[in-house]
Amino acid sequence: MGLSFILLLAVVTLAAWSVSRDEAKKRRVAAEFRCTKCGSLLGEDAVDAADKVHVEQMKQLREQHPGARFRIVQNIKAICTVCGQQYTYDEKEQMFAIYKRRWGRDSSDEI
Ligand SMILES: [Zn+2]
Fold first, then answer.
1. Dmax over Cα atoms in the chain, in whole Å?
2. Cα 38 to ligand 1 centroid, rounded to whole Å
């Protein structure tokens, strides 16, 4: 194995570790965050719900535009499973905020 391969492996491993750590942090915040609309705890289910919607949207896009490549950022990071309120997540502040759709600039709005 060349040195460059080992370095690449280290960078990829570090990046993956960082992503999974951020994901775990987001889920911990969700477990303690109360929906500002209905007062329910968001919990991991809300994060899963948002991920599911994103995966579904990507699948639809791929079906509608076969062969096209997309670079789409997932803006909605949690969806309250009780009332459906959508939230973004600020990784710096480690908190959720109500998702507001920016007209014409957002490609991941609801289906
Ligand atoms: Zn709610």
1. 56
2. 4
Residue keyed to tokens 């791929």: 62
Look at residue 56 and tell me whether its pLDDT is greater than 90. Answer: yes
Distance CA 60, CA 65 (A): 8
Give 71's pLDDT tier (boundaries 50, 70, 90): confident
Token pair for 63: 């079906």
pLDDT above 90 covers what percent of the chain?
Answer: 64
Residue 90 has pLDDT above 80, yes or no: yes
What is the C-alpha separation between 9 and 111, in angstroms, rounded? Answer: 38
Q: How far is the CA of 46 from the centre of ligand 1 (A)?
A: 9
Phi-psi region of 39 (alpha: psi -120 to 50; beta: other; left: phi over 0): left
Among all chains, which residue has been given the structure tokens 């062969």?
67
Phi-psi region of 88 (alpha: psi -120 to 50; beta: other; left: phi over 0): beta
Distance from residue 69's CA to the centre of ligand 1 (Å):
34
